[in-house]
Write a structure and sequence with these properties.
Elements lengths: L6 E12 L6 E12 L3 E5 L6 H8 L7 E6 L2 E2 L5 H10 L2 E4 L13 H11 L4 H14 L16 H13 L5 E5 L7 H14 L5 E6 L2 H5 L4 E6 L2 E7 H6 L4 H8 L2 H4 L5 H12 L1
Bound molecules: adenosine-5'-triphosphate (ATP).
Adenosine-5'-triphosphate binds next to helix 1.
GO molecular function: ATP binding; ATP hydrolysis activity
Keywords: ATP-binding, Hydrolase, Nucleotide-binding, Transport
Family: Belongs to the ABC transporter superfamily.
């Protein structure tokens, strides 16, 4: 891991509410997290705990009702929707969703999808293609697939393209919201390996999942979200081997990917190898 200790993301006392005034409901409460360059932080929690809301707030897709968000040193807390759009377009912060079709234009060949953010940034087409291809190779996508439409790829291949697309602008921070949840076990392990490799590249990653097993081998630190609050944040190995908060203990004790009979032996072995590497 290469980290210079400088926070790429600083979130302090974040509050998010949903709903109109009288039925206003608090979904995130006093959430604080800081992520440094080259660091991967896993955010885990059960369904409805507020994981996606956290991601959406950091991407400016939902408005925070309180607290502060600093991205690469810039206070974005009071940004207007237009400023947020400009920030996302600059490619400083990128995202990968569970369903890669959400981040890829179904009518654009994948190579075009990949170079689009670079063209928006003013990079010339020739250089954009070169850089795009380099990232597709990095996520181990066969060059004969570059001209295909997203619908002509498998789910795992599409997710590799989405990861390459997130990387191509060399962002400071990538937020991955359940990036492997929809994949079969072979593709899941493939994407986890790629994410692990990224740790050495200086990019900060936030890896959101309900599944501790997926996060375990990739994250340096783990933050456990419970009913809209981080109840435990710490070194991944420490949280996994000796969780302190009762809810974290429950999560660790029932981590499905590491324990369930539904997970194949090959998947469990591969995850253990990642965990021990
Ligand atoms: N746009 C919205 N308007 C109102 N309530 C919402 C909205 N989006 C999410 N919620 C509610 O906020 C809470 C947190 O949702 P969120 O999607 O952040 O949870 P999550 O931890 O990502 O869950 P999952 O793992 O199922 O995706 C849930 O109770 C959800 O119903």
């Amino acid at each position: 891991m290469s980290t210079d200790g400088r926070p790429v993301l600083e979130v302090a006392d974040l509050e998010v509410h949903y709903g109109p005034r009288r039925r206003r409901r608090r979904v995130l409460h006093g959430v604080s997290l800081s992520v440094t360059r080259g660091e991967t932080v896993g955010v885990i929690g059960e369904t409805g705990s507020g994981k996606s809301t956290f991601a959406r707030a950091v991407l400016g897709l939902v408005r925070a009702s309180g607290g502060r968000i600093l991205i690469d040193g810039e206070d974005v807390s009071r940004y207007s929707p237009r400023q947020w759009r400009a920030l996302r377009r600059r490619g400083v912060v990128q995202y990968v969703f569970q369903d890669p079709l959400r981040s890829l234009d179904p009518d654009l060949p994948i190579e075009e999808s990949l170079i689009e953010p670079l063209l928006v940034q003013g990079v010339g087409r020739k250089e954009a293609i070169e850089r795009g291809r380099a990232y597709l190779a990095r996520v181990r996508l066969d060059s004969e697939l570059f001209g295909r439409l997203p619908g002509e790829l498998s789910g795992g291949q599409r997710q590799r393209v989405a990861v390459a697309r997130a990387l191509v602008t060399e962002p400071a921070l990538i937020i991955l919201d359940e990036p492997v949840s929809a994949l079969d076990s072979a593709n899941r392990v493939g994407i986890l390996e790629i994410l692990k490799e990224l740790r050495g590249a200086g990019v900060a990653l936030i890896f959101i999942s309900h599944d501790l097993g997926s996060v375990a081998g990739v994250a340096d630190r783990v933050a456990v979200l419970y009913q809209g609050e981080f109840v435990e944040v710490g070194d991944a190995r420490a949280v996994i081997s000796a969780p302190r908060h009762p809810y974290a203990r429950l999560l660790v004790g029932s981590a499905p990917t590491l324990r369930s009979v539904a997970a194949s032996r090959a998947e469990r072995d591969a995850l253990r190898a990642l965990l021990n590497a």
